[in-house]
Amino acid sequence: MGAVVQANSQVAAVEENQGQFLTFLLGGEMFAIPILNIKEIIEYGSLTSVPMMPAFIRGVINLRGRVVPVVDIAQRFGRNPTAVTRRTCIVIVEIVADGERLDVGMVVDSVSEVLEIPHGEIEPPPSFGARIRADFIYGMGKISGKFVVILNVDKVLSIEEMALLGQAGNAAPDALPASAAG
Question: Which of 87, 4, 96, 98 is nearest to 45 (CA)?
């Protein structure tokens, strides 16, 4: 039931913001997220690493006295870690987990712009061919004859799933449950 509520809240967020999305680059590809999920964009830096976390969790930052985890989205998608350049930044997004609003940072190569994508110009996610998991994709937005991948932020930054991956990565192979051991 929670997944249905989260999916419906993602659709509502997309419809509420009248098709405004922040676009950003990741490994030369353009992605987008609804602007309602975004709290701020900050310069990359001052991360504190946390032991025994999955590789895609770069660490945590102090954001006005609050501890905010920072996720390397490229690694979350199973790619190489994001190379830090002067354009690398952290996009602070708000997600909902267990009915609670949480801030999470996303490391991206660079932020591009805010674009308006009419609801009629958003196609459903492809069932094959995407280089990231289909459930991470809300849809494919058409911009000037090209597609931009619109991410489902609540899925990409699922605290529950990232915690499970962290536990699986830190457990000895014989300590994993039979379903996780493969």
Answer: 87
**Torsion sign (Cα): 92, 98, 99, 100:** negative
| DSSP per-residue letters across the chain | -HHHHHHHHHHHHHHHTTTEEEEEEETTEEEEEEGGGEEEEEES---B--TT--TTEEEEEEETTEEEEEEEHHHHTTSPPPPP-TT-EEEEEEEEETTEEEEEEEEESEEEEEEE--GGGEEPPPSS--SS-GGGEEEEEEETTEEEEEE-HHHHT-HHHHHHHHHHHHS-GGGS-HHHH-
- Residue 86 in domain: yes
Beta-sheet pairing, 122-123 with 137-143: antiparallel
Instruction: State the total domains in the chain.
Output: 1
CA–CA distance, 109 with 122 (Å, rounded to integer): 24
Residue 11 lies in a domain: yes
Tell me the whole-structure pTM to 2 decimals: 0.77
Q: State the CB neighbour count (10 A cutoff) for residue 169.
A: 12
pLDDT tens for 62-93 read: 999 999 999 999 999 889 999 999 999 999 99
Provide the residue type at 16 as one letter.
E
Range of the domain at 47: 2-159
